[in-house]
Design brief:
This protein is an alpha+beta fold. It has nine helices and 41 strands.
């Protein structure tokens, strides 16, 4: 299968020669129009259109192989568990980025020399908590009045900070002495629930518009979208992603009080905007609990929707739901890209929304009308779980074709392994539900493919407005979702051990596994008592860290019970468990939970599916046709056998008027440059650690740079604190 795939790539690239000549002409025609519009990197993703495009052209296909390190900046605060996922912004000659432990910093963009740094741990509310209260931060938002007022907005933990862009000091007139608590203004008391912001907000006039990351378990805050005044921090408007009585979408929830209890439906992956029309585009995630919807019957608007919102008022303009009643964690992982499509000789302003399923949804920008038909495909099987009701159909774009495989059957299994290992994965596959992307979660195990992190992820695609070509990296990793019964009935006279085992099963097992072994991107808890003491673990459970949400809603006795179990504290395990009393437990106690995020792997640790496992795809949005496709990333031992498998990848590409596509993203810690017209690899270099982030392209002092954050950390890779900038040799 692999070599057949390679042959298809080779034949496809023959057609690229013709496309290359045409695209050169298109670039020449479009370059003057786009030269000034896209020659800066002032926003997350390059610009508010989120197209990851730069009109700079000093670095081109002829000289990109001459790139060399221009500067390296070390933040000095990584540890064995940190990451950097930041796409920095560059304002004038200053680069603004975020460190592994979420310090905001400003650098001279030419030299990488630090101008100032702001540490959120110095603020009173989080002082002394260290990194346990932190999350990842993918970028910042910049505001200026065009005169002397220059502000950086970014988030750490549950705080949105407003920092003077010139000196790194909090602007005290904003909110509460320079910050606002994201727990506030959500319409109900969520003080004990996890709320953070991982992707930066977006500026419109005098508003900072933000989305949140919330827990994905049953006890979750709602993910409403909010706009605050950039000067005062006062709430200007709120869009209820879980509609309230009288609002559009309310009827999609069978339980008419769901808005009081259900959480999630959050725009965690950021926004894009048509600034001229004043339209905000928001990708919304799934409602909680992720894998069981027996307490949220209906289609659950506006979960899993791309929503067009009036940026000035917060009013809905249009929406489209990409998954009905999501049970598979199919959040919309990235903001849509603003594109212009020429179809049947007519130009149409549109958006392109990519999904974890590998679909490209195309909608008219102003109306939400699909560019191509989107069919409702019948779901053949209902759930075996009591109380669960799947949607009878799911949306399925007719065109363009998906950029990844979407089903896993026996013929798709990995053959680059010993026969005994192949027989093992074949036997295991036969015991799972598979073969259809929307099979219900089950007790025997349901294959999730192209994966929980499959298809497109938060890095998002790049789009070349001069040619209409969309460039998207994608992953294809099978996972297995297995549901188990939960005994939510507390037992009188439980010991801490008995209560701890019960609570671990309902609260922690979905990520850390039934045997504390971890899985996917979640660490093992085996031996954790050698690293952390009881106080530190209590702090971690209360405040969360990176992918782990806070569990502040647990009582002190519940936290103690879990900790005595995890840390294997024999004496304390024997003590009597003190039973808390909470009326809301009726809503939050689910009858089922999952056994964790478990990848479907061979005995050797490779994906059970045949390669490719990571790809880079070029799609002409004017025709809907795939222009070229290639693997991205390598396993060194497989590469030595001539197998270019690709790897899972996090972080997106950028594309330039110079004809170059830059991307890191892979687990092999490479930074690569491709010919955007043909997909030919032009240059690659080793990074200090995997660059699980999106690069930024900018000009400083008349010289073009491309910079990438090299944080590592994901996929069990080593970590780093480095930002590395590349440029051509000085003249």
């Amino acid at each position: 299968m692999f070599f057949k795939f390679q042959f298809k790539l080779s034949s496809m690239k023959l057609r690229c020669l013709l496309f290359s000549a045409l695209s050169v002409c298109l670039i020449f025609i479009g370059c003057n129009k786009n030269e000034k519009k896209y020659n800066t990197w002032r926003n997350y993703g390059g610009n508010k259109e989120n197209n990851h495009y730069s009109s700079l052209r000093e670095i081109d296909t002829a000289n990109v192989s001459q790139l060399q390190v221009a500067w390296v900046y070390h933040t000095g605060d990584n540890d064995s568990m940190t990451q950097i996922q930041t796409n920095p912004v560059i304002i004038g000659n200053t680069l603004y980025g975020v460190s592994p432990k979420l310090k905001l910093f400003a650098l001279d963009a030419s030299s990488g020399k630090q101008k100032w740094a702001f540490d959120p741990a110095d603020s009173n509310e989080v002082k002394g908590l260290g990194y346990f209260m932190m999350n990842v931060c993918r970028g910042v938002a910049y505001y200026t009045d065009g005169k002397d007022d220059r502000r950086i907005f970014y988030s750490a933990s549950a705080k949105l900070f407003c920092v003077n862009a010139d000196d790194g000091k909090l602007i005290a007139s904003f909110g509460d002495s320079g910050k606002i608590d994201l727990h506030n203004d959500l319409g109900r008391d969520v003080r004990n629930l996890y709320v953070a912001s991982t992707t930066p907000g977006i500026i419109y006039n005098d508003l900072i518009i933000i989305g949140d990351r919330v827990d994905e378990d049953a006890a979750a805050a709602p993910g409403h979208i909010r706009a605050y005044n950039v000067h005062t921090g006062k709430l200007r408007w709120i869009f209820h992603t879980i509609p309230q009585p009288g609002e559009e979408g309310y009827e999609s929830w069978e339980d008419k009080e769901a808005w009081k209890h259900i959480g999630g439906a959050n725009a965690w992956s950021g926004f894009s905007m048509d600034e001229e029309k004043g339209i905000l585009f928001a990708p919304v995630g799934s409602a909680s609990y992720d894998f069981y919807g027996g307490k949220r019957h209906g289609n659950d608007l506006f979960a899993n929707c791309v929503v067009a919102i009036d940026a000035l008022t917060g009013k809905r303009i249009w929406h489209f739901q990409t998954v009905h009643h999501d049970l598979w964690d199919k959040d919309l992982p990235t903001a849509p890209v603003l594109v212009t499509i020429t179809k049947d000789g007519k130009k149409t302003e549109a958006i392109a929304q990519l999904s974890k399923s590998g679909f490209i949804f195309l909608f008219e920008r102003a109306t939400g009308k699909p560019i191509y038909p989107i069919n409702e495909v019948k779901v053949p099987e209902q759930s075996e779980l009591a109380g669960e009701e799947l949607s009878s159909t799911q949306p399925w774009p007719s065109f363009p074709k998906p950029i990844v495989r979407q089903t896993l059957n026996d013929k798709d299994l990995n053959t680059f392994i010993p026969d005994s290992s192949y027989r093992d994965i074949s036997k295991r596959l036969a015991s799972y539900k598979t073969g259809f992307m929307f099979n219900p979660p089950s007790k025997e195990g349901t294959v999730i493919f192209p994966g929980f992190d499959g298809g497109s992820e938060w890095g998002g695609p790049a789009y070349d407005p001069a040619t209409g070509i969309l460039y998207a990296n994608a992953s294809e990793m099978p996972w297995v979702l297995t549901m188990v019964d939960v005994n939510n009935k507390t037992i009188l006279n439980e010991t801490n051990l008995e209560a701890g085992q019960r609570l671990y099963r309902s609260t922690c097992m979905a990520c850390h596994g039934p045997q504390l072994q971890g899985g996917g991107n979640y660490p093992t808890l085996i031996g954790v008592e050698k690293k952390y003491n009881e106080e530190q673990v209590t702090q971690l459970i209360s405040s969360g860290r990176r992918m782990m949400p806070a569990f502040a809603q647990l009582s002190a006795s519940e936290k103690k019970a879990i900790i005595t179990f995890i840390l294997n504290e024999k004496d304390k395990q024997k003590e009597k468990f003190i039973l808390p009393v909470r009326p809301e437990d009726e809503w939050y106690n689910m009858p089922y939970t999952s056994t964790g995020y478990n990848k479907f792997l061979t005995k050797e640790g490779y994906p059970a599916v045949a390669p490719p496992w990571g790809t880079l795809n070029a799609v002409d949005l004017n025709t809907g046709q795939l222009i070229w496709k290639d693997t991205i990333g390598d396993y060194p031992e497989l590469k030595a056998r001539g197998i270019h498998s690709g790897t899972e990848n996090y972080g997106g590409p950028v594309v330039t008027a110079g004809g170059v596509l830059f991307i890191a993203a892979t687990s092999d810690a490479k930074f690569r440059a491709f010919n955007k017209r043909t997909g030919q690899l032009l240059w690659e270099t080793d990074l200090p650690a995997s660059g699980f982030a999106t690069p930024a392209v900018y000009e400083a002092d008349g010289r073009e740079y491309v910079v990438i954050a090299c944080g590592g950390g994901k996929l069990h890779k080593h970590t780093s604190d480095a930002y590395v900038a590349f440029a051509l040799p000085s003249k």
